[in-house]
Amino acid sequence: MTHLRRISLIFTRISKAFVLALMLCAAQQTSASATLPASVRLALDAARIPVDAVSIWVQPVDTGAQPTLAVNAERAMNPASVMKLVTAFAALEQLGPAHTWRTEIAMSGRVREGVLHGDLFLVGGADPVLGYDRLWKLLRRLRALGIERIEGDIVLDASALRLPPHDPDAFDGRGLRPYNSGPHGLLLHYNTLLLGLYPGKGANEPVTLAAEPPLAGIVIDNRILTSSAPCGTWYRDLQASIEGGRQLVLSGTLPAACGPRTWSAAPLPPAEFGIALVAALWSEVGGHLGGSVRAGVRPASGTQPLFSDDSPPLAEIIRDMNKWSSNVIARQLLASLGTAHQDAADMVVGGARVASAQLAAAGIATEGLVIDNGSGLSRIERIRADSLGRMLVAAWQRPWMPEYIAALPMAGVDGTARRRLAGSPANGQAHIKTGTLNGVRAIGGYLLDRNGHRHAVVMMVNHPEAHNSAAAQDALLEWLWTATP
Question: Which pLDDT tens digit goes with each residue over 160-208?
């Protein structure tokens, strides 16, 4: 056999193998496409999204039931904010729905004639929802106990969580957006400044601003003007920046047609935000301070407790997290789970390990699972649709099931899913967590079909056109509601 003929035979075999591989891949895609409900397939086609970019899992919640529909379900995909379902499952499993976080007030020295001759300590317990209203009450209680002046410092102790450095610009370069804030041992008011915006009646009129909570040392330069544009995505033209260290500059336009709106910003890192907030509120309740508000750690001895304040129970906090997809709460919960590893230098990593272990202990496959921060605001977080679906079924069998489901937005009714399934007979029949990033769109939760049977349902789309896949996801929910399976 000549050398040339050998080369020809090798090339022919390679070509046949390549064609066979293509045929097998096409057959697999055709098979997956054939299992899809027609309405879902048509919606994906209209959105120019191939079936290969979609992962689906549908299963009745009844014990021992088999999946009704599985498409690419073993493939790990980015779930965006649907990852909060995992964080909620792990938190309820590890801590229980009645778990609370405690913030303590302590002092050194003595109080004489309304003056504390020593330091005051505000000791955080990693409470995810310690808002400024509760903080105001804590400081007001100090005044009611007769403390008018603190000769020393107010020390903010955030040592409850050991955390790595956090860069709020790392995800998308928008470090002043509250969704980019990291966890903190003494997280105050979600590290968020709420900005009430009141447009004028005509174009180019100033937009009136009402900001809360008060932050000592922060100067707000409001340059936002009213526009005559229609009220579409009203916040698209708004910008916030920090100039000169402590000057928050707000710019852009707000359409008069929108009426009053609420925007938000995270002008400072959590530690600095807490200092500015406590300083402002202590003055607001009539308190005086000889020293300063600063970060520090309560000494192991030489202090005495005054009182403490407990957070709402975990079940309520998870509702706040999932109804409106709070990344800050999710990050805080994951870090709190990491406290189970007292020797962990990084409680975010520790929390991810705890969450993964909770899924494995429940018999849920963790192959391909990647937990970054527990919020879904990540490019590396991954989970399989079958793992997520089986976790939802496992949650249905837990005693805390009612709290878990009630925390999810109702499609067409409230939360982040309030605009889904409009005009559909399935409206109000699904408790669904949604998730959206550039190139990612996902849903996960439960649906009650027209015969009164409940199903766990997951659909994840990872594709450049994923933002167009809402219609396909709604079509899946409607198909499931009809009880076609």
Answer: 999 999 999 999 999 999 999 999 999 999 999 999 999 999 999 999 9
Reference 58, options 469, 463, 449, 471; nearest CA is 449
Residue 91's Cβ-side half-sphere holds a number of Cα atoms within 13 Å equal to 33
Please answer whether residues 35 and 69 qualify as being in contact, where contact means their C-beta atoms are separated by less than 8 angstroms: yes
CA atoms of 197 and 219, how far apart (whole Å): 17
Confirm if 255 and 226 have CB atoms less than 8 A apart. Answer: yes
- pLDDT reading at 340 higher than 70: yes
Strand blocks (E) in 76-222: 76-77, 102-107, 110-112, 115-117, 120-123, 149-150, 154-157, 193-198, 208-212, 219-222
Q: Is the pTM of this model over 0.70?
A: yes
Q: How many helices (H) and strands (E) does the chain have?
A: 11, 24
Could you give the count of Cα atoms lying within 13 Å of 309 in the half-sphere of its Cβ? 23
Taking Cα atoms as reference points, which of 104, 124, 94, 289 lies closest to residue 191? Answer: 124
Strands 115-117 and 110-112: antiparallel
Determine the pLDDT at residue 1. Answer: 47
